[in-house]
């Protein structure tokens, strides 16, 4: 509704429930969404997602310190075998998922991460970091809320416990403009 208020015309490819929406992010993730104003742009942008030419960069605050400054998680993701609303790397029907990461800043008990996705599986970043023992701060679904009680600094612990959402932000999208062909 907010998009329709600002833009009189949006692509109809997504249907009446998602007019113009080319891709989504998880409910509690902040940041960029891609929206197309017309069907031609929508189809061209969707094709770029399918061919994996669109680059997505996220920032996240995770628990703990990573063992190295750079790395990746290359584990398939599918529905959790028991908790059907969750995703997991421990599944028989997982699809390939590649998450590349860099440590931006390492703190005593937290790390600020820059994350790139080579694939776009549901809750991919959250699942990969949680499985690696570094859940995203504030993520109640994948262990990021439970870890707050282990923080040493009482002010930090209190601030994290009051977070309304997880600390994961879709920071950058790089794509080829569907009309001008210019990289944006």
The gist of it:
This protein is α+β, with helices and mostly antiparallel strands. 18% of the residues lie in helices and 24% in strands.
Q: What is the overall number of helices? A: 4
Protein structure class: alpha+beta
Mean pLDDT: 91
Share of helical residues: 10-25%
Low-pLDDT runs of 5+ residues are none
Morphology: globular
Give me the count of strands: 8
> Strands of the largest sheet, in order across it?
1-8-2-7-6-3
- Kindly, what is the distance between the CA atoms of the first and last residues, rounded to a whole number of angstroms? 26 Å
Order of helices and strands: HEHEEEEEEHHE
Over the alpha carbons, how many angstroms does the gyration radius reach?
18 Å
The proportion of strand residues reads 15-25%
Q: Could you give a short account of the major beta sheet? A: 6 strands, mixed
List the helices and strands and how they pair.
Layout: H1 2-6, E1 30-31, H2 39-50, E2 55-63, E3 70-74, E4 78-79, E5 87-88, E6 98-106, E7 110-117, H3 124-131, H4 154-161, E8 168-174
Parallel strand pairs: 1-8
Antiparallel strand pairs: 2-7, 2-8, 3-6, 4-5, 6-7
Notes on the protein architecture:
With 184 residues, the chain is of the alpha+beta class. It has 4 helices and 8 strands. The strands form 2 sheets. The chain has a 6-stranded mixed β-sheet with strand order 1-8-2-7-6-3, with helices on one face. A hairpin with a 7-residue loop joins β4 (78-79) and β5 (87-88). The model has no long low-confidence stretch (mean pLDDT 91).
